[in-house]
Specification:
Elements lengths: L7 H12 L6 H44 L5 H8 L6 H22 L12 H27 L1 E9 L3 E9 L4 H13 L13 E5 L2 E2 L6 H6 L18 H4 L12 E5 H7 L9 E2 L13
Parallel strand pairs: 1-5, 4-6
Antiparallel strand pairs: 1-2, 3-4, 3-5
Length: 292
């Protein structure tokens, strides 16, 4: 820090002393004196030029910063007006409004319209997306309710050792237990043993699988469920592939679902075809039908 505040003569003397250590002739003494003065002058000029460059850079940076922050194009005129003796308040308010308007306009123009900002959080956009999702959800629910109310004809067979085929029309959204109750009512006039049987004691068997009571026809149709001997999502009847077709080839054909009492199932579960029946498992895949 001390060297930065030394005078010109002190700097010359210090340089001259360092260069004249020991015995020196008068000629060399003068020459070294001149060289020391010249070196100090050169250093001074270099330092001044460097300081000027730094000042210019700082000035440009300051002007650039002011240009990006200040939007008042009439600063000079305002300063001149300040020197007047009686400046009116009305023009000042007008200039302030113009300044604010220009500032707002310039701020908007700074944003680049070509930059993709979709990844940035946007509350309005998120609310719009949530609203659209809710609308789609409600629309999907309404469609499902309409589908559940559609009527389908189901062919079933009351099985007591022999088949007694019947048809019934029910909505797709009907559960299996309610379907069994409707079938029991239709059959009770002809089969008196069903009059005292509750629907919980009836079993609905389709394609060699026992359908749980909580399932609906809609569930089986939408999931395109499959059984051991055919699809569970078709409820009309085709010819039995075990009688008229090659059993090794998988066909999209269905058989009449069987309705049996739980007592009949317990008595004959070791006899064909009851010994093939198993409870429906949606996670189990039947890649090929196993018809025997």
């Amino acid at each position: 820090m001390d060297k930065a505040f030394k005078t010109h003569s002190t700097a010359v003397e210090d340089r001259f002393k360092r260069s004249t250590v020991g015995l020196v002739s008068a000629k060399d003494f003068k020459k070294k004196r001149e060289l020391a003065e010249q070196a100090v002058l050169n250093e001074k000029r270099i330092r001044e030029r460097a300081l000027q460059k730094i000042k210019k850079k700082r000035k440009k940076a300051r002007e650039k910063a002011l240009a990006s922050l200040s939007f008042d194009v009439g600063d000079g005129g305002e300063e001149e007006d300040e020197g007047d003796e009686s400046p009116s308040p009305a023009p000042k308010k007008k200039k302030k409004k113009e300044k604010n308007a220009l500032k707002t306009k310039t701020k908007k123009s700074i944003k680049c319209p070509f930059v993709d900002t979709s990844f940035l959080p946007d509350r309005a956009r998120e609310e719009e997306e949530l609203r659209m999702r809710e609308e789609l959800k409600q629309e999907w629910k309404q469609k499902q309710e309409i589908m559940k109310k559609e009527q389908i004809e189901v062919t079933y067979s009351y099985w007591d050792g022999t088949g007694h085929r019947r048809n019934i029309t029910v909505p797709k959204g009907l559960t299996i237990v309610k379907f069994l109750e409707r079938c029991r009512r239709d059959l009770s006039d002809e089969f008196h043993e069903l009059r005292g049987v509750s629907p919980e004691n009836l079993i609905y068997v389709k394609e060699d699988v026992i359908i749980p009571h909580t399932y609906t026809f809609y569930d089986l149709i939408v999931s395109r469920a499959r059984g051991k001997s055919g699809p569970l999502f078709h409820f009309d009847v085709h010819d039995d592939v075990r009688l008229v077709q090659d059993t090794r080839i998988e066909k999209d054909e269905s058989h009449a679902g069987k309705i049996v009492t739980r007592a009949y199932y317990e008595r004959n579960r070791h006899i064909f075809p009851v010994n093939r029946w198993e409870v429906y498992d949606p996670n189990k895949k039947y890649e090929k039908y196993t018809i025997k």
